[in-house]
């Protein structure tokens, strides 16, 4: 009888833990795995700095994290259609985007650079690119910048890889891209180099819907904790050194 009661208690406790596990909320996170080292595919799995960061945030908030890999220009529509709960994708918190979504505090500072052929005649600035073709990625900050310079022809691509291949084959004269992923692409593709250009710093942040103010506030608290307890620096060292 005692053994039966003991087993019954164990069963009840196990069931309670199972129910708690099932009840744990899952956040669906939209990203675009074409932006190493922030998010990229490794043996079919989405990994990177952003992915590690959002998983650490999930731990702090006791939330499960599920990653959805989408096209970059499909991320904001997916968020607004409630197909994803948040976006983390090296996304710059621009004033235009703030009209449609709310952003967390920034978690990374970046700049735009040019990727060009490693030759002496390569373009060094926007002036050199007038009348020439620049590869831009749909929805990226660089796409917005080039669209405001009518003397430069923008060749649009769905992902950085396509633009890099076009540059290597001579179809375009340069690619404009964020500094960190540019380093990754140049390291993997011989014959290319990075050219620094004038421009403002950009702040990456996590995007949420306008009705997610409480979630955004909680993420900001988690981000602050991650920065204070040393986790953020560990992730920086892992992915950028």
Describe the fold and architecture.
The structure is a single chain. The protein has helices spanning 2-23, 49-61, 75-80, 95-98, 141-147, 160-168, 179-188, 213-228, 231-240; strands spanning 26-31, 34-35, 39-42, 45-47, 64-69, 86-87, 102-103, 108-110, 112-117, 133-137, 153-157, 174-178, 192-196, 202-204, 207-208. The chain is an alpha/beta fold. It folds into 2 domains: 2-109 and 203-240, 3-Layer(aba) Sandwich (D-Maltodextrin-Binding Protein, domain 2); 112-196, D-Maltodextrin-Binding Protein, domain 2 (3-Layer(aba) Sandwich), CATH 3.40.190.10. Strands 5-1-6-15-7 form a 5-stranded mixed beta sheet. It has a 5-stranded mixed beta sheet with strand order 11-10-12-9-13, with helices on both faces. Strands 2-3-4 form a 3-stranded antiparallel beta sheet. The radius of gyration is 22 Å and the shape is globular. The N and C termini lie far apart (61 Å). The relative contact order is 0.18.
Computed over alpha carbons, the radius of gyration is 22 Å
Helix coverage percent of residues?
Answer: 40-55%
The total tally of domains equals: 2
CATH superfamily of the largest domain: Periplasmic binding protein-like II
Total strands: the figure is 15
The average pLDDT is 92
Query: What is the third-level CATH name, the topology of the largest domain?
Result: D-Maltodextrin-Binding Protein, domain 2
Strand numbers in spatial order across the main sheet: 5-1-6-15-7
What is the H/E string?
HEEEEHEHEHEEEEHEHEHEEEHH
Question: What can be said about this structure in brief?
Answer:
This protein has 9 helices and 15 strands. It has helices at residues 2-23, 49-61, 75-80, 95-98, 141-147, 160-168, 179-188, 213-228, 231-240, and strands at residues 26-31, 34-35, 39-42, 45-47, 64-69, 86-87, 102-103, 108-110, 112-117, 133-137, 153-157, 174-178, 192-196, 202-204, 207-208.
């Amino acid at each position: 009888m005692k053994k039966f009661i003991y087993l019954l208690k164990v069963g009840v406790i196990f069931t309670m833990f199972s129910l708690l596990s099932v009840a744990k909320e899952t956040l669906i996170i939209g990203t675009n795995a074409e932006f190493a080292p922030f998010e990229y595919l490794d043996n079919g799995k989405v990994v990177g700095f952003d992915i590690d960061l959002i998983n650490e945030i999930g731990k702090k908030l006791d939330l499960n994290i599920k990653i959805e890999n989408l096209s970059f220009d499909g991320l904001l529509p997916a968020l607004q259609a409630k197909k994803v709960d948040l976006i983390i994708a090296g996304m710059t918190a621009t004033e235009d985007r703030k009209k449609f979504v709310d952003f967390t505090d920034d978690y990374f500072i970046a700049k735009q650079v040019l990727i060009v052929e490693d030759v002496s005649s390569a373009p060094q600035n926007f002036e050199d690119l007038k009348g020439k073709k620049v590869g831009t990625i749909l929805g990226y900050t660089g796409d917005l910048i080039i669209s405001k310079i009518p003397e430069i022809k923008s060749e649009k691509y769905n992902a950085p890889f396509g633009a890099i291949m076009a540059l290597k084959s001579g179809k375009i004269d340069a690619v404009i891209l964020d500094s960190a992923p540019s380093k990754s692409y140049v390291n993997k593709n011989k014959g290319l180099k990075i050219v620094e250009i004038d421009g403002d710093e950009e702040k990456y942040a996590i995007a949420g819907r306008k009705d997610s103010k409480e979630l955004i506030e909680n993420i900001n608290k988690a981000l602050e904790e991650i920065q204070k307890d040393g986790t953020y620096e560990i992730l920086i060292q892992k992915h950028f050194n």
